[in-house]
Amino acid sequence: MSVTQAPISQLRDEISSRIDALRPELERIGRDIHANPEIAYEEHQAVAWLTDLLKKQGFGVELGVAGTPTAFVASRRNGTGPTVAFLSEYDALRGLGHGCGHNLIATASVGAGIALAGALDRLPGRVLVIGTPAEEGGGGKIRLIRAGIFQEVDAAMMFHPDTRTQVLHWALAVTHMHFEFIGRAAHASGDPEKGINALDAFVLAYNGISLLRQQLKEGARLHGFLKEGGTAPNIIPERTSGEFLVRARDEAYMQELVQKVKNIFQAAALATGCEVRLTFDEEPYAEGAGSTDMGNVSHVVPALHPTIAIASAEVPGHSQGFLEAAASLRGYQAMVDAAKALAMTGADLLADHALVDQAKGEFRRS
User: Fold this and answer.
1) Which of 10, 56, 141, 226 is the most exposed place for a label (fewest CB within 10 A)?
2) Do the Cβ atoms of 8 and 113 come closer than 8 Å?
3) What are phi and psi of 276, to 5 degrees?
4) Pairing of the two strands 83-88 and 155-157
5) Strand 221-228 vs strand 239-248: parallel, antiparallel, or unpaired?
């Protein structure tokens, strides 16, 4: 099935006008989410604001999908045709709020879904807005995949704010590791020989990882932080804990690095006499330069994840500068531009089913 070029051109103009009309409400919700950051699986306010708007726009909304209170699926259908899904992220970074711009992702996907749903009278099919919590660690999309939410999706799309505008970009596979060294406390001056220093174990492990970095393949990353390093300078630390991320451009090499990092932590424990405890998040993010569980989605359905610049290249992601950009005029213009691009791409898919078949064919080959 396909429609002539003229109606598609007209539909694109209508989509653009519809999103322009929605902009004040989308921007208001985006600013509310930005001002009230909620971390992984705690995004109750964001979900309420987004789903209220979707309900007002005629979407049927199912809350708490995949056994997750802050995940949702909003749906509008007319007749038979492809299912196009727009993925909405809305979790914040621990300690930095929306320094990754998820307030813009959330509203862009909702705007795209509403605008495309307005064309269902002429382009039969189904439009979904899928609320995906916990992208910044927690793997919300992985839960949704396991629950079968993407089984009948023909194409999944979202955008991400960045310092570069790109259609294609690397998304690294990542494993999130939590570590804990357990030693024995002792008086650091009076009885140091009776202690087992858990901070020494961490120092050895950190130095080992730093040495490993020299031999990493292009694109791989190892980084983490010490969350707990002791309680007082005159007490030998009996416990240290923290987190590390292991990233690579393909999952096989990532798993190889994970084993090397495990070996380093176990060697540090053996050298100091500490016990080491390593735990990992449910499932690593798959690749598709940061990491995203959208990579996992791209392994089960054809997916699109472009970026749009909201700040200059000198502004690092996950920083105060990027946090400010996510609430700037440029940021909200990027939200509008992204919503239009996503919705128009969705219209192309609904208008020409051969494009859907082509995307599925490429997906199977890759």
Assistant:
1) 56
2) no
3) -115, 140
4) parallel
5) antiparallel
Q: How far apart are CA 177 and CA 207, in angstroms?
A: 17
* Residue 286 pLDDT: 54
Residue 68 backbone class (left: φ over 0; alpha: ψ -120 to 50; beta: rest) = beta
Report yes or no on whether pTM surpasses 0.85: no
71-106 burial, b at 16+ Cβ within 10 Å, e below that, comes to: bbbbbbeeeebbbbbbbbbbbbbeeebbbbbbbbbb
Residue 128 has pLDDT above 90, yes or no: yes
Give the integer Cα–Cα distance in Å for 249 and 205. 24
Going across the sheet that includes 155-157, the strands are 60-63, 72-78, 125-131, 83-88, 155-157, 303-304
Q: Read off the pLDDT of each residue in 86-97 and give the average, rounded to a whole number.
A: 94
Between CA 128 and CA 75 the distance in angstroms is 5
pLDDT of residue 170: 58
Neighbour tally for 320: CB within 10 Å: 12
- Show the beta-strand stretches assigned E in the chain: 60-63, 72-78, 83-88, 125-131, 155-157, 160-162, 173-182, 221-228, 239-248, 275-280, 303-304, 307-309
Identify residue 164 by its one-letter amino acid code: R
Alpha-carbon distance 151 to 353, whole Å? 18
> What six digits make up the tokens of 366?
């890759």
d(CA 311, CA 118): 32
pLDDT digits (tens, 9 = 90+) for 288-322: 444 566 777 888 899 999 999 999 989 988 899 99
pLDDT reading at 82 higher than 80: yes
- Taking each continuous run of H as one helix and of E as one strand, the counts in the chain are 10, 12
Q: Which two tokens stand for residue 277?
A: 């405890």
